[in-house]
Specification:
TIM Barrel, 280 residues
Length: 280
């Protein structure tokens, strides 16, 4: 199992390029960055962890800019989006962004995506919150065409464009691995089985309880359940928990750490570094 690190890199913390170098120097395999475009001041959506929304949610760098800097600064690292809120992106631009980043990273990109939890943020992008899953579905189906077809077009309820050229195509064919974040459920599993490569949940119990249903969803879609790619995100890092993830067949565990300045970050990464050898 690979181990990666995810941190909100903001204007008040270590920047993406030096963050990537610090992660790479300690033997971690990957670096992921989260995404939020902005946070409306009149936000009514409660913070999922309770209490006030931390400032890093509205101070974070653009995820794609940060990952491009990381890929250049640390050329051995896998980089990943953790996660791209697909409903609030233009699908044509997003297809080009991801494909271009896959080139910058020389095929070392994991495309983590999701539907978003902050209704206020998503609706500022012109998306009805209750429709976000279907919006994301159409956008991803369109993106897949742009990645794989020389002359791509799409006609749907939310996405429409005529025959078009879009290059570069991703280095990884038919595209970088797409893993969808979210809690177990039949709707999520249908989405994964239709247009993604794997699942990125939080917590080993979620994986244990949900994986049988995800496998059935793959079978129903005519896909091989053995091809499911499991990622996991977790802020916990106890060695026994890390070993548990490895035993469940998780391909990559991404440990979420608090947004930190240089000294604190180095100490935190030094404390986590022995986990790399634990699952090597």
């Amino acid at each position: 199992m690979h181990i990666g690190i995810m941190m909100f890199s903001t204007d008040q913390t270590v920047q993406p390029a030096p963050l990537a170098r610090l992660i790479e120097e300690r033997g971690f395999e990957a670096m992921f960055l989260p995404e939020h475009s902005h946070i409306p001041a009149t936000r009514t959506t409660p913070y999922p962890r309770g209490g006030e929304l931390p400032p890093e949610y509205y101070r974070t760098h653009d995820m794609f800019v940060g990952l491009a800097a990381a890929a250049t600064a640390a050329p051995r690292l896998t980089i990943g989006t953790g996660i791209t809120v697909v409903p609030q992106h233009d699908p044509i631009y997003l297809a080009k962004l991801v494909a271009s980043l896959d080139h910058v990273a020389e095929g070392r990109l994991v495309f983590g995506m999701g539907f978003g939890w902050n209704a206020d943020e998503i609706e500022d992008h012109g998306v009805v919150f209750k429709e976000r899953r279907e919006v994301a579905r159409e956008k991803m189906l369109a993106i897949r065409r742009l990645w794989t077809e020389e002359l791509a077009s799409f006609e749907g309820k939310y996405v429409n464009f005529g025959p078009s050229y879009m290059w570069p195509k991703p280095v990884q064919r038919p595209g970088p691995p797409v893993v969808i974040g979210g809690a177990a459920g039949p709707k999520l599993f249908r989405h994964i089985a239709e247009y993604a490569d794997g699942w990125a949940p939080i917590g080993p119990r979620t994986i244990m309880e949900g994986l049988p249903d995800l496998r059935r969803a793959f079978e129903d879609a005519g896909r091989d359940p053995a091809a499911i790619r499991l990622h996991a995100f977790d802020h916990r890092s106890e060695p026994s928990l890390v070993e548990h993830y490895a035993n469940l067949g998780v391909e990559r565990l991404v440990i979420n750490i608090a947004p930190l300045r240089q000294g604190e970050l180095e100490r935190t990464l030094d404390e986590l570094a022995p986990l790399v050898d634990l699952v090597a």
